[in-house]
Design a protein that fits this description.
Distance between the termini: 54 Å
Order of helices and strands: HHEHEEHHHEEHEHEHEHHHHHH
Low-confidence stretches: none
Number of domains: 2
Largest sheet: 8 strands, mixed
Oligomer: single chain
């Protein structure tokens, strides 16, 4: 197998984490091993990497409804004065420059370090036009705030019925998958049900990830601890009716109240831990990418291999049937079938028939493969996959796989299975190393 070039993205990641985060440095090396495997299987090209599926920055998303609670919190927390683009997903990134800048969505779509890398492909998969509308949905703002150093904030758009719901759903799902922490302002749930249906659905689906903080904004009034607890209990009951049963609740009240200081401290504590959340997310992305080979790509391709085999076998049988029919007519008119039982002529005729049918069978295989490749490309687009399913299928079009009844793809051979197993074991080891940073599992530890 050809050696795949190490992605520049992975080289930069390995350098960046060499001292700061040795586990993520190891993760970048495992991503290259996965890249090599997928490259050998035809799933990615030489200049691609699976590491771009997950942003390596810690990400905080903020979701809200029609009130100004979300934008006011952002400005207060970052100590800045931003004008929110209510109709776009806005990524807020630190800049050392004194002046803030706003960049188009294409800057996010083209940068593999940021959370919306190549999201335009997902947008185009649900839009009716081929035109790239990424700038209509995304933007990047650079902000001179020390609190943004080493992390990204994603300010999601205010609920708007005019935004394409299919695109909104895809972008919501994408950023919630990417986020390490999500601040959900409860004014979201006061909006019309038809506008929040998709958002609630995604929160319910991901509620067990421990990434949601529900923020109740009462910053205009002063609240004591008892009243704060009553408000939290009320919202817990209200969200339970929507199917949301987990998540942390924080109530913001008047700044002069100590309860607000406590609430902000809780948010600060979660933000302080966000780098660890990011590490677990990246490792989860690595494990999922490895498992997707067996769980998604291989079954999709093998289903098409079965269809392809059936088609070429049927085509060959039709031609063989035509030859048999001709022989029957020849037998009726000339009586030549008896000649085929001759100990010399019979085997020679059989060899000639095989020599004729074999290249014909191979030619039929190539013809039908073109239709299968087209089907796989459509399927890949429908599933929003970056991996090239047609590439894995083409790797399975070897001479003996065409002739013999082999319905498995090359991803099912022993060598590939061993590589996948080794990658998964490495991934588990890295998770354990990350766990060991918080607990001591040593049997020799006798401390009380």
């Amino acid at each position: 197998m050809a050696e795949k070039t190490v992605s520049k993205h992975l080289i930069n990641l390995e350098k960046n984490f060499s001292a700061a985060n040795p586990i993520l440095q190891k993760a970048s090396q495992s991503f290259h091993q996965l890249d090599q495997l997928e490259y050998d299987l035809g799933l990615i090209d030489d200049d691609e990497t699976t590491a771009t599926k997950s942003s390596w920055w810690p990400i905080v998303s903020l979701i809200g409804g029609f009130s100004t609670a979300k934008s006011e919190f952002i400005n207060r927390y970052l100590d800045t004065s931003l004008h929110s683009s209510n109709h776009k997903f806005t990524v807020l990134q630190y800049t050392p420059q004194a002046t803030n800048a706003t960049l188009p969505g294409s800057a996010l779509d083209a940068d593999h370090r940021l959370p919306f890398f190549q999201v335009s492909q997902k947008i185009q998969s649900v839009e009716s036009t081929e035109e790239n509308h990424v700038n209509a949905y995304l933007e990047l703002k650079t902000v001179n705030s020390e609190r943004l150093k080493g992390k990204l904030f994603v300010d999601t758009p205010v609920l708007n019925a005019s935004i394409d719901p299919a695109v909104q759903s895809i972008l919501n799902q994408h950023i919630l998958d990417m986020s390490d922490l999500v601040l959900v302002f409860t004014d979201l749930f006061e909006a019309p049900p038809e506008l929040i249906e998709e958002s609630v659905k995604e929160i319910v689906l991901k509620q067990d990830t421990n990434k949601f903080i529900f923020v109740v904004d009462h910053s205009e009034i002063s609240l004591d601890i008892k009243k704060t607890n009553e408000i939290i209990a009320s919202w817990q009951r209200r969200l339970a009716e929507l199917g949301i049963h987990t998540g942390q609740f924080i109530v913001l009240s008047d700044n002069s109240n100590s309860a607000t200081d406590s609430a902000l401290l809780e948010i600060e504590q979660r933000l302080a831990n966000i780098e660890n959340d990011r590490s677990y997310r990246v490792l989860y992305s690595l494990e999922k990418s490895i498992r997707d080979i067996n769980d998604i790509y291989t079954p999709e391709v093998e289903e098409q291999i079965l269809t392809w085999k059936d088609r070429i076998n049927m085509s060959t049988l039709i031609i063989l049937g035509f030859i048999v029919t001709l022989m029957l007519f020849a037998e009726i008119s000339m009586g030549i079938v008896q000649i085929l039982f001759d100990p010399i002529i019979g085997p020679v005729f059989l060899l000639i028939l095989i020599a004729f049918l074999t290249p014909l069978h191979l030619m039929m295989a190539k013809v039908h493969a073109k239709f299968i490749i087209k089907n796989l490309k459509k399927r890949q687009k429908k599933l929003l996959l970056t991996e090239n399913l047609a590439g894995l299928f083409e790797k399975s079009l070897t001479f003996w796989r065409i002739l013999l009844p082999i319905n498995e793809s090359v991803a099912k051979n022993k060598k590939t299975r061993l590589k996948i197993h080794k990658l998964l074991e490495n991934c588990k080891d890295m998770v354990q190393e990350l766990n060991d940073q918080f607990s001591n599992y040593s049997p020799h530890d006798t401390s009380e």
